[in-house]
Design goal:
- 2 copies of one chain form a homodimer.
- In chain A, a hairpin with a 2-residue loop joins strand 1 and strand 2.
- A two-stranded antiparallel ribbon of chain A has the order 1-2.
- Chain A contains 14 helices and 2 strands; from the N terminus they run H-H-H-H-E-E-H-H-H-H-H-H-H-H-H-H.
- Chain A is mainly α.
- Chain A has one domain: Farnesyl Diphosphate Synthase.
- Chains A and B meet through helix 2, helix 6, helix 7 and helix 8 of A and helix 2, helix 6, helix 7 and helix 8 of B.
Chain lengths: ~300, ~300
């Protein structure tokens, strides 16, 4: 088995475990409030790649963290990712009808339910992180909450979403785009890597190294998204393509050219890998994940 | 000074302290993401009564908790309350243009910014609770996070909002309405009371007693809202009145009559006070708060 197929196999395996954990963490409920839980399940159990849970679990594995803990952290991060997609797809935001080949939540349910389901997924992530089942030490649980809240909030993902909404008027250069993406998607990709070190009781320096790996692989991941928007088809990516260009939005491809964007992604993947030096062969999956992020087609 | 004026004075004083804490916790930020922080500040620094922070602080005072801790917890709960108002006011939800006499966030900014500002306020609440400045013991911080997430999520506030959206088709009786309100508003009112006991290192039994007080005073508070919707004027309440009746929504007044609703609120306030028996004179402010909730005019 090549390294890449080892990575793809691990990604699929952790995705399966993550789906089972999410299913258990979001049981259907009776009563009229059950509709919002149905919408949460629709949003969270939709068969995404589960890259963020993979990163949480694979990073935790470096430090001998039990899977029972790292899978819960991965599921919590995925809840936040899914909530952000639900809100991003709303008519007042990106106004998307299709997500991973299915109707978006506000299309399958309605706008109000989509707003509430997003809110509740975000909230539930903190229920999961703060529960003793995630880690016996409350200090670790509180640190995980602090990490996720920072990554998801105005200084992280939401800040990036705000910039993205205004990006049409900002004429961002490649460095401005990198900052936008580091906030909008990078922080939430890096949080799984940081959380692995936190769960493993590592020093702040190790947490930072893991975070630097995650941020750089996350940026490579996003640049590959821009490349796919130009090169890919809806059948491959599961969503509408050519949309960025149609919207006149600056992308890494429009700023750096197609080859320039691909090269930038590859160099970021190399930089990401350089942060894993201390972990030797144990970090093989994470190295492959960085390569995949820079070169993916879906 | 009568007890009631002691309560009103304490409420105003804690509101002032809470506003100062919120102002410090939500500093303006430069850069294009600053717009979402402006909207968060607009939503959170609008001069509400700050009943939830009052309950967090007054409950904490029973157990000798330093104000530096309880004010942060109160501010975190208020962030969640404010986020819920921002999202509730959206066109896809209650579609309100006016809140506390000012344009709602989506009117003052735009819908997308309002969605993001709500998301970020909810997230920031968990940053605040998980920080060591809120309590030196991580186990206490994690417990506070768990309490707030449960109160705010699908098993609490969001669940209640979901029921409320569907209430027109549910023909709820008074007991169904009480359940709706316990979820929609009660949980987030009770959380401050519970948090005071958690911050004070009290037993689960004491946390439950405080929560029972909060839930009952919270229901009284909500029934008074229905009474005001019939009896009040927009000038007094700072929002449109007569709206429930116009929308054909079941309310405590439509189910129990005006006097029945007032009596129910008063009996709930009495029950709430009965849960404070163990705390003697120290709980005077909380007793007055229950009476105020049942009989308020704004």
């Amino acid at each position: 088995m090549t390294n890449t197929s080892a990575f793809k196999s691990a990604l699929a395996s952790i995705a399966g475990e993550t789906n089972a954990v999410l299913d258990r963490l979001l049981p259907p409920v009776p009563g009229p409030e059950g509709r919002v839980v149905e919408a949460m399940r629709y949003a969270a159990l939709d068969g995404g790649k589960r890259l963020r849970p993979f990163l949480a679990v694979a990073s935790s594995d470096l430090f001998g963290v039990p899977r029972a803990h790292s899978l819960r952290v991965g599921a919590a991060i995925e809840m936040v990712h899914c909530y952000s997609l639900v809100h991003d797809d709303l008519p007042a935001m990106d106004d998307d009808d299709l997500r991973r080949g299915r109707p978006t939540v506000h299309k399958a349910f309605d706008e109000a339910t989509a707003i509430l389901a997003g809110d509740a997924l975000l909230t539930e992530a903190f229920t999961v992180l703060s529960a003793p089942e995630t880690h016996p030490d409350g200090n670790v649980r509180a640190a995980l909450v602090a990490e996720l809240a920072r990554a998801a909030g105005a200084a992280g993902m939401v800040g990036g979403q705000m910039i993205d909404l205004r990006a049409g008027g900002l004429a961002l250069d490649a460095s401005g785009l990198a900052r936008l993406q580091n906030l909008k998607t990078g922080c939430l990709i890096a949080i799984g890597c940081r959380a692995g070190a936190v769960l493993g009781g590592q020093s702040a320096a190790v947490v930072e190294e893991m975070g630097a790996y995650g941020l750089k692989m996350g940026l490579a991941f996003q640049i590959a998204d821009d490349v796919m928007d130009v090169e890919g088809s809806a059948a491959e990516t599961g969503k509408a393509t050519g949309k960025d260009a149609a919207a006149g939005k600056a992308t890494f491809v429009s700023r750096l050219g197609l080859e320039g964007a691909k090269n930038y992604a590859r160099s970021l993947a190399d930089e990401a890998v350089s942060h894993l030096g201390a972990f030797g062969e144990k970090a093989g999956l994470l190295r492959e994940a960085a390569v995949f992020s820079a070169t993916r087609r879906s």
